[in-house]
Amino acid sequence: MTSLLRWARTAMKGGPSAVLRFPTSGFEVIKRSQIFEEERFEEFEKGHYYPVNIGDVLVSKYQVLGKLGFGTTSTVWLARDLKRRQYVTLKVYTRDGTGQGEIQIYKALSQGDTSHPGYAHLRTALDTFTISHQGSGHHCLAQKPMWGSFRDLMYRTPARRLSEDLLKTGLKQVFLALDYLHTECKLVHTDIKSDNILQEFEEMSILDRFTDTELEHPSPRKSVTNMPIYASRRFELPERFGRAVLSDFGSAVRGDEKRDYDAQPTIYRSPEVMLKTEWSYPVDIWNVGAMIWDLFEGKHMFLGMDPDGKGYSTRMHLAEVIGILGPPPLDFLKRGERARDFFTKDGMKCLMA
Q1: Contact yes or no for 199/295 (Cβ under 8 A)
Q2: What are its E.C. numbers (predicted)?
Q3: Residue 149 forms beta bridges with which residues?
């Protein structure tokens, strides 16, 4: 199989890439009784996923090479752009319009001044298209492949945390990305976490080896009511990493429109969000500041776990913030719709249940 892949890479130079033929046997079949990957989600039971098969060529352009991941609204695949002869990742959304909002955000990302130094640190769209299945449309997003996230790297290193040098460089690049997002696109990300900070490939040969492995050792899989489910596979750990890139804009909102509803990953929520004051761009900066502790120390700065045993609570989260930074200013509390739930009128802590 490896020789076939080498031939495909060198054949037809200057023209489209050759379509690879993937094995149709010789793979592990997952037991029907074993709940597997996206099969665990209600959307799968409803038949909302698109039946992607490794080896498929979508819209006569992208050949699927292997599965990278899955979620409640999409599956993600490594693919080959046959016309441009380059690797891409394909995010194939579930049906009924899922992904439309995120795709619109990706289109907005390219409307700012792309010479801004932060633009290179945002994950943008290479292409968007729609494929049909059983009368429904599935939006698809093609992007430049990334090795993995800061979270992936943390869990694949013995220390379970990032090195100081990598963190310094990565955070500088994340702040450049946020400056572009805030100033050029007028968008607030609202969902910054280690999963959403990716790293570019420096060694493109990793993608070749990923494809070689799929050809020689096909991924485990199963079929449920004619819907294929493949095992996701990881890229090998590189010797060096490229730039940090901020990704996943599905929760992004306009920053020039004031809002006060709940947002952000729970443990990274800013005081504005917790107290329901109007919030905008600064909540992203708070979000990054709280996340840094995870990356460097390997543990959360704030937990918000209530001692009554009921799990997370805003009152405990606020108590932890105040324990480090002191009480919030009185004028800030006056703007918070929920401030009266936790503070007296003079700004003293109340922290009622």
Answers
A1: no
A2: 2.7.11.1
A3: 198
**Residue 269: closest CA among 249, 284, 251:** 284
Task: Give the right CATH number for 37-246 from 1.20.1250.20, 3.40.1080.10, 1.10.510.10, 3.40.50.1980.
Answer: 1.10.510.10
CATH classification code of 258-341: 1.10.510.10
Query: Beta-carbon neighbour count of residue 71 at 10 Å?
Result: 14
Active site residue 248: no
pTM of the model: 0.87
Tens digit of each residue's pLDDT (9 = 90 or more) over 24-71: 999 999 999 999 999 999 999 999 999 999 999 999 999 999 999 999
Residue 200's DSSP bridge partners are 146
The pLDDT tens digits of the residues spanning 234-286 come to 999 998 889 999 999 989 999 998 888 889 999 999 999 999 999 999 999 99
Q: What is the CA radius of gyration of the chain?
A: 23
196: tokens are: 């959403």
